């Protein structure tokens, strides 16, 4: 098989190229997993020589790559495949030049690493220039999130793309799916016999999915003003995590079987009615506060943010998957910026025993909890009750813990490494399919609509460095449950 490929990056001067794409490609190259020969054509508007671009990328790799640049000679070989092409992605003439440049390159992977408003333009220009077709090899395109900003715009973008590309050429990236621990959810569920019998409404009381960040919006205020936590994190990463936990076993671990099963979860989501949004969703925005002992500004003081902004930096949802496996089991999702720490985890809380024989145990027993830790400190733990040594019968929770780092040594590869490699190999299993993206927007549509009426938001309602607004605690406590404090 002809393994050579050419990656064409639109948005070469952007953060994504510098922080993620080139460092990931470099690490793959170093690990000898990148098919060779390859070429990388980086496109941006600025005037820059290829030499100057290579120098910039060398610095980027030094700052951001998992695998540090070693001997100069190895970098030189990698850099020889990098070239810079100055051009405006809106200008049809760029695509004519590109067509000529690519003549001897049959296998082409386009990457839209530009601001989202440019993706439709790039797709159209590629299509009009005949570059979406195959040219003796394969042609694929990777589109970054956010994929649209609501159901209507996502449908329009899907329709536009399908006018030029077939679905199997399109790779909608969600970097959470490339994380080792996220991939492991399916291995854990479907390569072990002991969990599956428990994985249902008979045994599971509820599920909590937390993606907490201690950082604020930093320099991304302008983008975040238009996005908010629901669009930025829930519509993509968190609903993907929910699907991996809730889905039925796919027939095989291949793109369509896996993505078909995820779609079934999305179709089973209980719709949130417009007039009951407050029962199922809570939002928040951080004010000033302290994170790890350091004083930090409130969201409204961040650069690019309106002083009366109503963008949510925290969102919590309660969702139900209405099928035989999960009927009546709540899935609580929460995400926020400026929480006390960076922590992503999925906690499966099991039902209590049907009858407690240890009557003298004053505090009762705590439920068993299985926690899949996505990051940091990747791993998993199972909490069970045990007898505290001593003459009395005292129960205490103990935890069985597995740490990736301790077992496998070195840190896991970056999500972008796996995802880029998959796109080069033509495997879309870890990418979002067009119909899934639309289901995800449709599920959130009532909440987005209710929250677009900013006048009702009483912001800020949580201090930076806290676990979110008091309303979020009340929200879960109404159901007789509590948020975990990871
Ligand atoms: C991105 C969001 O998709 O994910 C960011 O746009 C967020 O706002 C980031 O910070 C979190 O990713 P990770 O890999 O650091 O958990």
């Amino acid at each position: 098989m002809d393994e050579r490929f050419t990656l064409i990056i639109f948005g070469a001067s952007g953060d994504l190229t510098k922080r993620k794409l080139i460092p990931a490609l470099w690490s793959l190259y170093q690990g000898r997993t990148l098919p060779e020969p390859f070429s990388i054509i980086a496109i941006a508007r600025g005037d820059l020589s290829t030499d100057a671009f290579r120098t910039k990328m060398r610095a980027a790799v030094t700052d951001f790559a998992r695998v540090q640049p070693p001997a100069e000679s190895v970098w030189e070989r990698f850099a020889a495949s990098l070239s810079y092409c100055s051009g405006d992605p809106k200008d049809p003439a760029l695509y004519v030049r590109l067509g000529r440049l690519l003549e001897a390159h049959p296998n082409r992977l386009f990457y839209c690493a530009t601001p989202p408003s440019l993706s439709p333009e790039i797709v159209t220009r590629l299509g009009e220039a005949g570059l979406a077709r195959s040219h003796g090899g394969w042609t694929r395109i990777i589109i970054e999130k956010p994929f649209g900003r609501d159901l209507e715009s996502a449908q329009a973008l899907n329709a536009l793309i399908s006018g030029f590309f077939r679905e199997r050429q399109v790779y909608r990236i969600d970097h959470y799916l490339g994380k080792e621990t996220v991939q492991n959810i399916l291995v854990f569920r479907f390569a072990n016999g002991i969990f599956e019998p428990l994985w249902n409404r008979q045994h599971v009381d509820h599920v909590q999915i937390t993606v907490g960040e201690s950082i604020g919006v930093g320099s991304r205020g302008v983008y975040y003003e238009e996005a908010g936590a629901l669009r930025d994190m829930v519509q993509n990463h968190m609903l993907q995590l929910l699907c991996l936990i809730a889905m039925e076993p796919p027939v095989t671990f291949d793109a369509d079987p896996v993505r078909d099963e995820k779609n079934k979860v999305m179709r089973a989501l209980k719709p949130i009615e417009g007039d009951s949004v407050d029962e199922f969703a809570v939002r928040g925005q951080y004010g000033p506060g302290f994170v790890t002992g350091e004083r930090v500004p409130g969201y409204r003081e961040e650069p690019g943010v309106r002083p009366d902004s109503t963008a949510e930096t925290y969102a919590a949802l309660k969702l139900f998957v209405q099928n035989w496996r999960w009927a009546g089991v709540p899935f609580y999702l929460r995400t926020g910026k400026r929480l006390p720490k960076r922590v992503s985890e999925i906690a499966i809380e099991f039902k209590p025993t049907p009858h407690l024989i240890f009557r003298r145990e004053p505090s009762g027993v705590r439920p068993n909890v299985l926690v899949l830790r996505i990051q940091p400190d990747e791993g998993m733990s199972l909490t069970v009750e045990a007898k505290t040594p001593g003459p009395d019968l005292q129960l205490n929770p103990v935890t069985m813990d597995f740490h990736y780092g301790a077992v496998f040594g070195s840190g896991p590869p970056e999500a972008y490494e796996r995802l880029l490699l998959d796109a080069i190999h033509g495997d879309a299993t870890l990418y979002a399919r067009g119909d899934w993206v639309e289901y995800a927007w449709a599920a959130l549509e009532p909440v987005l609509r209710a929250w677009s009426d900013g006048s009702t938001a009483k912001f800020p309602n949580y201090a930076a460095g806290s676990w979110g607004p008091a309303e979020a605690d009340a929200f879960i406590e109404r159901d007789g449950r509590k948020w975990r404090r990871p």
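The two ends are 48 Å apart (CA to CA). The chain has two domains: 5-144, 177-413+433-477.
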